[in-house]
Automatic annotation (TrEMBL):
Keywords: Hydrolase. It comes from Rhodococcoides trifolii. It comes from the Bacteria. Coiled coil: none annotated. GO terms for molecular function: hydrolase activity. Residues 44-134 form the AB hydrolase-1 domain. This is Hydrolase.
Length: 288
């Protein structure tokens, strides 16, 4: 593995290349957001026959930016990804993006349609195309307000409760008692910092992302939406899974169901284990 950096306006991005990189290589690029490259160790280990690239998004992991408190939008992340892919110098790549990485990858293909020959977008939390998008927007605004007033623990507790919720949110969601951070092993004291990468993403777009469907349909990229078998369905599922179903419907093709849930590819990273072997096999099948 070799580690590299790409300098962009306001930030320095760090990425890793696993394997050889030549102008004829078609790398498999694995991205999350705000999850950094450390979350893809297990998944990358299943693709030793390919050159794999992992990367730390702006303000996450080893990638730093000048203003660590400013909002970050999917469009900014797409510009950063484009810069990394240009630095690789290989031409179109195969791209796997999960969660916020899937959102940013969809934004990338819409803005830079020649960057990827194939995109697997796994459970993008594209709340802007969901029927409960107005409630989601209010919930995310409340989460950011909690972060600003009380710090990371209380805000992250609200985030975890949101992503675990199944089915559409109704107007009573915000009337529920706030979850206790201690229930999730989160800090209850405010350390005063406001540089968390997830909250920067929430501040920049919340869960309101809606992809440019016309741009995606006109791109030469083959786009596959993916959802977890354990994430629920298009109506009764978790928000990110529902986002995957909704974007797939707008693109006119059903999503591919992957083993596990939202964290299906994890093999112990962050203390979470999905079904990484089965997940990798399914990804290889889709990439073939």
């Amino acid at each position: 593995m070799s580690t590299h950096t790409a300098t962009v306006t306001g930030a320095t991005l760090t990425y890793d290349v696993h394997g050889d990189l030549t102008p004829d290589t078609v790398p498999l690029v694995l991205i999350g957001s705000p999850m950094d490259a450390s979350g893809f160790g297990t998944l990358a280990s299943h693709f030793t026959d390919r050159t794999v690239v992992t990367y730390d998004p702006r303000n996450a992991g080893r990638s730093v930016r000048d203003d660590a408190t400013a909002p970050l939008t999917p469009q900014q992340h797409a510009d950063d990804l484009h810069a990394v892919l240009q630095a690789l110098g290989t031409g179109p790549v195969d791209l796997f993006g999960s969660s916020g990485g899937a959102v940013n990858a969809l934004a990338l293909v819409a803005a830079y349609p020649n960057d990827a020959r194939l995109l697997v977008a796994h459970e993008p939390p594209a709340g802007g195309v969901l029927p409960d998008r107005e409630v989601l927007s209010a919930v995310c605004a409340d989460m950011v307000a909690t972060y600003d007033s009380s710090g990371l623990g209380p805000a992250m507790a609200k985030f975890i409760a949101l992503v675990m919720h199944r089915g559409e949110l109704d107007s009573t969601y915000l009337t529920q008692p706030a979850p206790d951070p201690a229930m999730f092993g989160l800090p209850t004291e405010d350390d005063g910092s406001r540089t968390d990468p997830l909250m920067a993403n929430m501040r920049g777009n919340g869960a309101g992302f809606a992809p440019d469907i016309d741009a995606l349909k006109s791109a030469p990229t083959q786009i596959v939406l993916a959802v977890g078998e354990e994430s629920g369905g298009p109506v009764d599922g978790e928000m990110a899974g529902r986002g995957g179903y909704a974007v797939a419907a707008l693109l006119g093709a059903p999503p591919v169901v992957f083993p596990g849930a939202h964290q299906g590819f994890l093999g112990g990273e962050f203390g979470q284990t999905g079904k990484p072997t089965e997940f990798a096999a399914k990804l290889r099948e889709v990439l073939a």
